[in-house]
Structures are given as structure tokens and as C-alpha cells.
Specification:
It is built from 4 helices and 34 strands. By secondary structure, it is mainly β. The chain folds into 4 domains: 85 residues, SH3 type barrels; 85 residues, no CATH class; 85 residues, SH3 type barrels (Roll), CATH 2.30.30; 181 residues, endopeptidase domain like (from Nostoc punctiforme) (endopeptidase fold (from Nostoc punctiforme), Alpha-Beta Complex), CATH 3.90.1720. The strands form 12 sheets. Strands 29-34-30-31-32-33 form a 6-stranded antiparallel β-sheet, with helices on one face. The protein has a 3-stranded antiparallel β-sheet with strand order 1-2-5, with no helix packed on it. Strand 25 and strand 26 form a beta hairpin. Helix 2 crosses helix 3. The longest helix is centred in the N-terminal third of the chain and has 22 residues. The radius of gyration is 37 Å and the shape is elongated. The termini are far apart. Keywords: Hydrolase, Protease, Signal, Thiol protease.
């Protein structure tokens, strides 16, 4: 066999030591630099396509702690606007160009490559010192044409969920989201946010506005869009767009000056009780959209809506006093029922998406306010009336009191057309106007068939009787909301067991009650409401399967209180 010849005087041991020493020195060098020895300059880039289908080049890089910085221009003196986080050949680049000298971990280079960052989707430049290889060029990456400033990002045409033609454009998103302003001025107030970086957001058009500076970028260009949180229409300053931050290619111009945002239409449907209602888009501030007791912010908040978009429904719109929120003012209001307490009230139109002073397709409640002042108790006792209700003769009752009792009794009189609504219906009587409605099927509340019953529940019946007597729908809502509303209305007297924790029984208060008093039962007035008829009897819609009518007062339940209206 063939022998290996050694140089005279050289043994194999010193050679082995030399190799081991060389490997050790290489390892020390690697440890001292914190990353592997650069590959050869022959490490090239491979042509391919990015996620958007653009022709790009995949090149090998190494990634320091925190990611590879992406600079706004070809100088380390410019701002870091983004980072790359994947090593190896997972990152892609558009082209290479010369720029300022960059230094990292002992390497220097004047070569730069243009790319899009991972965090914000910002287009910028990566110095070649982060490329594997000789760190001053990379094979196969073509030269950038034109200047070294990043050009505006191109938008591509598409359609939004409503089928409207829009432009999808790349943006970067700061913590908390990209702000959407009410108009083309940062002083107009933030009405919404965009929460997705990259090209996931769409825009209607672009136009000039006031100048705004963010992250060292300044621009007077704005783009119109709809936000993610509240569905509010507004404007995004161009400083949040990837590219040169002052324009973007391919987006059509808006008309000038900025038109008010388009109003979103309301859609005809039915509320959970089956009543006719309209679903209209709203935006929701922290704490919810306030519902007021009437069409004035001074009337007090009686409830809230908590869902944005078009998940909320409304009965109708009406004019009222001017409300101002977030720089918007409007005298339009919409009638609805709140989420917390089931109270009926009014939402000022400033919470509606669009131009905040009207919404398409929501019908009018009628001329003027739907909440005229209810009749006050007569100061001198007023003219008392004799008459009968539910077959019982009464003398000396205030006229409105007797009328309310008579109207409640109509569902018990067989000769009256209202008798057909005498069967209790869970959630019945809560339509857009007082009157019987189909109830809700709710087996958990002992009402498995009530969505097939046209009638009243307890609060629906009291609401209707009061409305028939006065012409004013002032006791709309459910029992707990009616208690608060009755106390807020002009009234004659209150028998208030609630002041004692609501722990009293109604028979403890019978001596204080008079016919026509409205009675509430349960903690926070949340169980039942009825009209007292005298002699320990009450007129009420009591429970599923029963006819509405006269029962004994509910002595077994907690008595919350009573209100004498006149």
C-alpha cells in the first residue's frame, strides 16, 4: 500500500496539535464576535416572490438581539423604523444601493438593501453588515434604480366587505393602533383605530389636510377609511403609510375639501322581542353609549349600549336638544332600549357612524320630541271623578288615575276588543309604541310558548295603561327601569319600602295605599309591577299561562315601593 511521506523531522503529533489550535482559535473568534464567521462572498441571493406576489430576492442574514434594524434611508444616522427578525434566507429584499458607511460587530460596509420590516411593515434599508458573506455586497441582488429615499408604497385596488371599490395600502401600526381622525386634522379628535399592519387595511381615497408629524415623519396627506373598533369613518395621516410617508401610489384623490363621512344606513329588522326595529351602526366610547331619559343630556343617563357596529337596534329618530361629543354636535336623537337595565331612552346622534347628525332609513318618531312633559298632579287636588273599573265603583278619584285603571281593565272585559290580548306574554308590550306584542319563548323563566302569544307582560301592561291615560309613553321599559322613571316624573306621593332595603311586605303598607297606585315588587323593583285597585287587590299581568286580571296583592314577595302619580 502507499505510504504517506512526512517531512524529515516532523511527527504527526505536532500537526494534530496545530489543527486543534486552529479550531480553538476559530471557536474563540466566533465566541468573541457573538455570531458565526461570515460565509464567503459567494453567498448569493435567490430570486422569488413575497407574500404580495412581488418579485424579490431572498438573501441570507444574521440577526442580532432585538432584530435587524431597518433604517429610513441609507444612513445609520437616520431613524430605525422597523426590524427583521428571521435569520438565514427567510428575509427578502428588493434591491441594493450604495449609502453611508455602516458598522456592526467590527464589520463595515457602504452597501445597503431595500426591504419591508416585520414589525410595522415599513419600507426601509438594511446595511450589508447584517448579510452573511463578506458583508459588503451580495451576489445576485440587483441595483436599486433612482434615489436612495424609499418611495411611496403602492396601493392595489380591491373591494371592502360592503362591495365598495377601495384601495388596499401598506401601513405600520403603533401600540394602540393607527389613529383614525374625524377630519384631515389631528385637532379633530381620534374617532377610531386601525389595528392591522401591512396591507390588511383599505382606504377610500386620499387628499390634502393639515400637517402632522409622527416618528420624525411629517406629511399633509390623509386617506379616508373606516376604523376597526367602532366602525367610524375618518382619516388616517400618511405618516402611518409605509414608504416615503407623504404619498402612496395608486389611490384615487378625494374631493376637496373633505366631505363629511358618508352616513351608514340602518337596516330594517326585529328586536329580540320581535318588535319592528332598525339596526344602525354606532361607535362605543369607554363605558358604553349613554341612553338619556329624554332628548336632552340634562335628563340624566338611564342606561347604556355596549356593542359597536350595527349590532344595536333603534325604534325611530326625533329632534331634541343639541348634544356635543368629541367635537361633533347634533340635535338628532334615536329611541332604543339599553343593555344594562332594559330602560327605554334616547341616544344622541353623535354616537352614530357617519356625519353624526342623521342616519339613513331610520324613520321619524313624529314631529317634535316624543317625550312631552307628563301631566302633573293637580295642585289643589284637582277635579275628582266617579266611575267604575273592572266592575268596581270608585268615587273621588283623580280623572287620570281612574282612566289608567279603566284602560288596564280593558283586557279583562269580554266585550272589549282588547280582551283578545288578555293572556300573559313574557316580554310582551315592549314594542316601538305601547300596546300588545308577541312575547319571547323562554323556558328558563317558565315561558316556553310565549313567542306565540300576543299580549302583555306586567311592565308592558302598566306602560300601555299609563300611555292610554296620558298620551305620553313615559313608563316604557321593564320593571326596574319603570320604577326609576316613575320617581323622575311629576307624582303625588311615594310609599317607599326601598328605603328600608326593600325588605317589607306589601301588607305592611296596605293602609297607605290608594286605588291607582303603581306597585313594584322584588329587589331593585326587578320582579313585578301592578296597579293597586283597593281592598288588597291589584290589576296585573301575572305569569305565563294566566289571564291578565285582578289578583290579591303579592304578599309573599318583597315589596319595593309604590308611586301615586295623581
Amino acid at each position: 500500500m502507499k505510504e504517506d511521506r512526512l517531512h524529515p523531522g516532523v511527527t504527526t503529533r505536532p500537526r494534530i496539535l496545530t489543527v486543534l489550535l486552529g479550531l480553538l482559535l476559530t471557536s474563540v473568534a466566533t465566541l468573541s464576535l457573538g455570531w458565526s464567521t461570515p460565509a464567503h462572498a459567494a453567498d448569493g441571493c435567490t430570486a422569488g416572490h413575497n407574500a404580495s406576489g412581488q418579485s424579490v430576492y431572498y438573501c441570507g442574514v444574521w440577526v442580532p438581539s432585538g432584530g435587524i434594524p431597518v433604517y429610513s434611508s441609507t444612513s445609520q444616522g437616520s431613524s430605525v423604523i422597523d426590524h427583521l427578525h428571521s435569520g438565514g434566507t427567510a428575509n427578502w429584499f428588493y434591491c441594493s444601493t450604495s449609502g453611508g458607511t455602516a458598522t456592526a460587530s467590527g464589520y463595515k460596509s457602504t452597501s445597503w438593501a431595500r426591504s419591508v420590516g416585520d414589525d410595522n411593515g415599513a419600507i426601509g434599508y438594511v446595511p450589508a453588515v447584517y448579510f452573511s458573506g463578506s458583508e459588503n455586497y451580495w451576489a445576485g441582488l440587483p441595483s436599486c434604480s433612482g434615489g436612495t429615499g424609499s418611495s411611496g408604497s403602492s396601493c392595489h385596488s380591491g373591494t371592502n366587505k360592503s362591495g365598495t371599490t377601495v384601495s388596499y395600502c401598506g401601513i405600520w401600526t403603533p401600540s394602540g393602533g393607527t389613529p383614525v381622525y374625524a377630519s384631515t386634522s389631528s385637532g379633530s379628535g381620534v374617532v377610531d383605530h386601525l389595528n392591522t399592519a401591512g396591507t390588511g387595511n383599505w382606504f377610500f381615497c386620499e387628499q390634502k389636510g393639515s400637517s402632522i408629524t409622527v416618528g420624525g415623519y411629517t406629511s399633509s396627506d390623509w386617506a379616508k377609511t373606516i376604523g376597526d373598533d367602532h366602525g367610524a369613518t375618518g382619516y388616517v395621516p400618511a405618516v402611518y403609510f409605509t414608504g416615503s410617508q407623504n404619498y402612496w401610489a395608486g389611490m384615487p384623490a378625494c374631493s376637496t375639501p373633505a366631505p363629511p363621512p358618508s352616513d351608514d344606513s340602518c337596516t330594517l329588522g326585529h328586536n329580540p322581542s320581535g318588535g319592528t326595529a332598525y339596526y344602525c351602526p354606532v361607535w362605543v366610547p369607554s363605558g358604553g353609549v349613554p341612553l338619556y331619559g329624554s332628548t336632552s343630556t340634562s335628563s340624566g343617563v338611564v342606561d347604556h349600549l355596549h356593542t359597536g357596529g350595527s349590532a344595536n337596534w333603534f325604534y325611530c329618530r326625533v329632534n331634541g336638544s343639541t348634544a356635543t361629543v368629541g367635537g361633533y354636535s347634533s340635535s338628532s336623537w334615536a329611541k332604543t332600549i339599553g343593555d344594562d337595565n332594559g330602560a327605554t331612552g334616547y341616544v344622541p346622534a353623535v354616537y352614530f357612524t357617519g356625519s353624526q347628525d342623521y342616519w339613513v332609513n331610520l324613520p321619524s318618531c313624529g314631529s317634535g320630541s316624543t317625550n312631552p312633559t307628563p301631566p302633573s298632579p293637580p295642585s289643589n287636588g284637582g277635579a275628582n271623578t266617579n266611575g267604575s273599573a273592572c266592575g268596581t265603583a270608585y268615587t273621588g278619584l283623580p280623572g287620570l288615575t281612574l282612566k289608567m285603571m279603566q284602560q288596564a281593565c280593558r283586557v279583562t272585559v269580554t266585550s272589549d276588543s282588547m280582551y283578545k290580548y288578555s293572556i300573559y306574554a313574557w316580554d310582551g308590550g315592549h314594542g316601538s309604541t305601547p300596546g300588545p306584542t308577541y312575547g319571547s319563548c323562554d323556558p328558563s323563566n317558565g315561558a316556553p310558548n310565549d313567542c306565540h302569544v300576543d299580549g302583555f307582560d306586567c311592565s308592558g301592561l302598566v306602560r300601555w295603561a299609563y300611555y292610554q291615560a296620558t298620551g305620553v309613553d313615559a313608563l316604557d321599559g321593564y320593571t326596574w327601569g319603570q320604577w326609576s322613571k316613575a320617581l323622575a316624573l311629576p307624582h303625588k306621593a311615594v310609599i317607599n319600602a326601598a328605603s328600608h332595603g326593600g325588605s317589607g311586605q306589601v301588607d305592611n303598607y296596605l293602609s297607605q295605599l290608594k286605588p291607582g297606585d303603581i306597585l313594584w315588587y322584588g329587589q331593585n323593583a326587578g320582579e313585578h309591577v301592578a296597579i293597586y285597585m283597593g281592598n288588597g287587590k291589584q290589576m296585573n299581568a301575572y305569569q305565563s299561562g294566566d289571564h291578565d286580571g285582578i289578583t290579591s296583592v303579592t304578599t309573599g314577595d318583597t315589596f319595593w315601593g309604590a308611586v301615586r302619580m295623581w
